[in-house]
Amino acid sequence: MSNLVNSINLNKTPNHIAIIMDGNGRWAKGKGMQRVFGHRNALTAVREAVDGASDIGTKYITLYAFSTENWNRPKLEVDALMSLLISSLKKELPDFQKNGIRVNSIGNIEQLPSNAQKVLLNVINQTKHNTTITLTFALSYGAREEIVNAIKNISKKVVNKEIDIEKIDEKIINNHLYTFNLPDVDLMIRTSGEQRISNFLLWQMAYAELYFTEVLWPDFRKEHLFNAIIDYQNRERRFGKTSEQIDKNE
Ligand code: IPE
Ligand code: IPE
Ligand code: MG
């Protein structure tokens, strides 16, 4: 493990890591248990991912916890996920404070049950001055819904003459997304072997490096994160330029 950390170049770590935490249901099934058992065992992985990201100096980590599409799951599972969200946020608050974690959320938060909203807003408020790392939970989040919401808000401002149509650019769109206060994603990790985006951060991942691992989310530990970072650091991010230009720092 310490060897792994030593292989990481601390001057080249991703500033923003986004994770699709997938595979809880399969993890539970593999143990002959109900799907909810997997969700209940996901918290250790969350802690490890956030601590690991902090260890290497990453400033932003965003976790996909519940998608707009996840509302279509059986009610029993949705209810269990919501109560787990509430209990986990309450339980983790002291550690958020101790470790300098600023909590943030993206998504259509008004869709969440009111007690979940309350706990979430309280944790966001109580941790707002923390500066070590920003931990964003994507809750009732869908990138398409986010874009629709942004277009509505921009359109209203156009109608009210607050924004001139000709002035609409990438920056204005960015400022109307739920992620307005977050930088672009550098590295996106998805667990459980699925190789898809599932409506996560479509705009923000335009130039992210994608990393897929077979590990099921409840088994995810720092070593898995560090392996992803090492893989990321062996890639060349060209942003449309040629390799020669990148070498010359042009
Ligand atoms: C991810 O695990 C957690 C959520 C989507 C809330 P899943 O519940 O999707 O687990 P699998 O993919 O069915 O194994
Ligand atoms: C994506 O996982 C959403 C979260 C991890 C919260 P899903 O398990 O819902 O994704 P699909 O449906 O398999 O693409
Ligand atoms: Mg899944």
TrEMBL record:
<comment type="similarity">
    <text>Belongs to the UPP synthase family.</text>
</comment>
<comment type="subunit">
    <text>Homodimer.</text>
</comment>
<dbReference type="InterPro" id="IPR018520">
    <property type="entry name" value="UPP_synth-like_CS"/>
</dbReference>
<comment type="function">
    <text>Catalyzes the condensation of isopentenyl diphosphate (IPP) with allylic pyrophosphates generating different type of terpenoids.</text>
</comment>
<feature type="binding site">
    <location>
        <position position="22"/>
    </location>
    <ligand>
        <name>Mg(2+)</name>
    </ligand>
</feature>
<feature type="binding site">
    <location>
        <begin position="67"/>
        <end position="69"/>
    </location>
    <ligand>
        <name>substrate</name>
    </ligand>
</feature>
<feature type="binding site">
    <location>
        <position position="73"/>
    </location>
    <ligand>
        <name>substrate</name>
    </ligand>
</feature>
<feature type="active site" description="Proton acceptor">
    <location>
        <position position="70"/>
    </location>
</feature>
<feature type="binding site">
    <location>
        <position position="39"/>
    </location>
    <ligand>
        <name>substrate</name>
    </ligand>
</feature>
<feature type="binding site">
    <location>
        <begin position="196"/>
        <end position="198"/>
    </location>
    <ligand>
        <name>substrate</name>
    </ligand>
</feature>
<feature type="binding site">
    <location>
        <position position="27"/>
    </location>
    <ligand>
        <name>substrate</name>
    </ligand>
</feature>
<feature type="binding site">
    <location>
        <position position="71"/>
    </location>
    <ligand>
        <name>substrate</name>
    </ligand>
</feature>
<dbReference type="InterPro" id="IPR036424">
    <property type="entry name" value="UPP_synth-like_sf"/>
</dbReference>
<feature type="binding site">
    <location>
        <begin position="23"/>
        <end position="26"/>
    </location>
    <ligand>
        <name>substrate</name>
    </ligand>
</feature>
<feature type="active site">
    <location>
        <position position="22"/>
    </location>
</feature>
<dbReference type="GO" id="GO:0016740">
    <property type="term" value="F:transferase activity"/>
</dbReference>
<dbReference type="InterPro" id="IPR001441">
    <property type="entry name" value="UPP_synth-like"/>
</dbReference>
<dbReference type="Pfam" id="PF01255">
    <property type="entry name" value="Prenyltransf"/>
</dbReference>
<keyword id="KW-0460">Magnesium</keyword>
<keyword id="KW-0479">Metal-binding</keyword>
<protein>
    <recommendedName>
        <fullName>Isoprenyl transferase</fullName>
        <ecNumber>2.5.1.-</ecNumber>
    </recommendedName>
</protein>
<feature type="binding site">
    <location>
        <position position="35"/>
    </location>
    <ligand>
        <name>substrate</name>
    </ligand>
</feature>
<feature type="binding site">
    <location>
        <position position="190"/>
    </location>
    <ligand>
        <name>substrate</name>
    </ligand>
</feature>
<feature type="binding site">
    <location>
        <position position="209"/>
    </location>
    <ligand>
        <name>Mg(2+)</name>
    </ligand>
</feature>
<keyword id="KW-0808">Transferase</keyword>
